[in-house]
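Need the bound structure for magnesium ion, inputs here:
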Amino acid sequence: LDLAVSQEITCKIVIIGDSGVGKTSVIRRFANNEFSFDVATTLGQDFRSRLLKVGSNTCRLQMWDTAGAERFRSISSVYFRGVNGAIIAYDITNNNSFNNVKEWMGNFDQLVDAGVPKLLIGNKCDLKTERKIEKAEGEKLAKASNMLFGETSAKDNINIEHVFMKLVENMIDME
Ligand code: GDP
Ligand code: MG
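Answer from helper R.:
Posting the output first, comments after.
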């Protein structure tokens, strides 16, 4: 009889970045393995969760979505409260979204402890012919800012699982 009780811990992840880069789609892909070109925006903050096995423990990963507030630069500080990890997203076909990454990082760093792991993702990597940002540019920015990095496609389910797991591993190491 094994009396050991495995623990369930809750981890909070936020995702930020310009409107349209695919933040909601990335969360939907990871949480529910679904994708749609027609992403309805409900204003307000919303999260989805998924249970993950981490060693003998169970981690309930809560992924908070800006739900459109980023369009008005009005993400409330409540969004960042108690956060364990962050994803900053850009779209590899959109220069502006990449140029704005630094601004998003700045917002985050004002509100969150410097030790919280961060992951930079270049999403929509399925759109090969429309690419504007080389992978090496994303890698370079991530390295300079001490962030994890990966290119992803929520549409074709490329690298989504892998980047989330890398972030969670870094979060667990922090505990
Ligand atoms: P958000 O505003 O950052 O939350 O972005 P959404 O998740 O609403 O996505 C914006 C649009 O980009 C939607 O039409 C999505 O279907 C589309 N989209 C999201 N991720 C991808 C992707 O990886 N590849 C492609 N081709 N389209 C994507
Ligand atoms: Mg969204």
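Comments: The first helix runs from residue 23 to 32. The CA atoms of residues 9 and 117 lie 17 Å apart.
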